[in-house]
Amino acid sequence: MPHAATAAEADAAAPGGEPVGPLERGLAVLRALAAHPGPRMRPGDLVRATGLARSTVDRIVTTLTHLGYLRIEDDRDVLLAPRLMELGNAYLTCCGLPDALEPLAVELADELDESVSLAVPDGAGVRFISQSTRRRTMALAFQIGDLLPAERCAPGALFASGWSPEQQADWRTRLHDDPRDTGFPAVPPRSAPPAPDEVESAFRQRVADARDAGWAADDQLIEPGLVAVAVPVHAPDGSTVCALSVVSHTSRHSARSLAEHALPRLREYGARMEAALASPAPVATPPAPGGPDTSRAAKAELGPEFLQSLTRGLSVLTALGSAPGGLTLSGAAEATGLARATARRALLSLQQLGYAAPAGEGRRFTLLPTVLELGYARLSRLSFAEIAQPHLARLVEQVHDSASVAVLADDDIMYVARVHTVRIMSVNITVGTRFPAYATSMGRVLLAGLPERAAAERLARASVRPLTPFTRVAAADLVEAVAQARRDGHALVDQELEEGLRSIAVPVHDRTGRVVAAVNVSTHASRGTLDDVRQAVLPALTAAAAAIEEDLAVVTERVRLAIP
Ligand code: PHB
Predict the structure, then answer these.
(1) Class of domain 7-80+284-379
(2) 59-84: pLDDT as tens digits
(3) Which CATH fold topology does 384-555 show?
(4) Closest residue CA from atom 8 of ligand 1
(5) According to the CATH classification, is domain 113-278 in 3.30.1300.10?
(6) What is the edge-to-edge ordering of all strands in the sheet holding 364-367?
């Protein structure tokens, strides 16, 4: 169904005269959500933030929700969903720098016992692509994807010495338009911004010094206490591809003493990184041909509310991340199952919008660091509980009983997330509540995830006692209960923790296949037989665990996540 386009929606033209409309508008909605100070926006907020018509916003939200990139809460709040990190992961794989350099950055952080980061130039800003953190007294911890103003960090002074006159002009415009740095959600806004002219002359001086010295410092330019020293890392062609920084706090180092302490090592590791970039990259494995273009089926299902060209554009974007160095047009068509002409339109749109560029020889397209602005840093700040929570809420809606996620803590399980319906236990469970692992369904699947010996040792040392007349306490019984959970892939515990309470649990695996948590549903013992519980709950419970695992895998592809 056609709709009246507002002025802001008029189709822009990509190089070659191709329309970029739906993809551009979809990305505008993602950017608005990523830049918004709070985690959720209503469609009306999105209309105001993007200038798009309400009907357009609705279609984009429907489409992006179908793709798993957004989720809806309380019927109308729109939130970014962890799967969106696929886009940033695609850039990080495509650019190849984290894979080539991060192991060295981690080694350097260990050697110096300070935080080490890698950052790339992104327009007039500096964007982090790797963080090996040892944050101690620092209030701020930057994440992969965070953008800093070039003049307020050490890497910016290194990158700016290579700026073209246009880039310098862009930077100056930005400085004058936004002297308080409100366009940089990761940095505290300046309450009393210095005059842009002063900022400009101070930055020019730092850029000149950095050019002469081959390194740059940040002496509390972002926040009081934070000091950093950075060196450039060059590609074989001499261009600066990224900056290697070490970050500390004035409680340990002044900017000067940090430079004295860290520069020899920074230079050594910078040289090793350059050598790593100069050695022939491992032959990129061609991406497995993608399945058929599924946007056709979704279009049939969702009709006019589903924006096929937005979906196709995003599938081309993620496909570029299937190989370091990007893909050719034919490669992109093959990886997405799209017709060449369709893939070409998407590539040109992405280029026009600043997310992709032709690169190197062989007519390849690569992704640009701006892809990370699409929510990557915000989503990397989600805790494990926040990742699990919406899946628990959905499960509770399906089964009408309380659901929880717990981890193993010594001989106990410890709750990390919970969504309840009516309270059926005598104790009130909150996050942090502990129960003995041996008497709970989550405990049994968590123990089943350990190597058999380790599980047996834990059971042997636990102080086991009958909590109800049904509690299994014999050592052999408990070993068998855990073995059965291992065989079945779930555990069902009937009134062993509390009379009248029945609970069924399945494991949650991380991307390496290790059991890191368990998810359960607890119900009244009066609700039918044990088999009834299995039939009524297990499919939804298993699906919830799988959904948590999927999110976990996307989030932790590049970001370390603490699972309590
Ligand atoms: C950081 O890695 O957090 C960092 C690096 C350089 C700076 C400031 C912060 O100038």
Answers:
(1) mainly alpha
(2) 999 999 999 999 999 999 999 999 99
(3) Beta-Lactamase (3.30.450)
(4) 153
(5) no
(6) 327-328, 364-367, 356-359
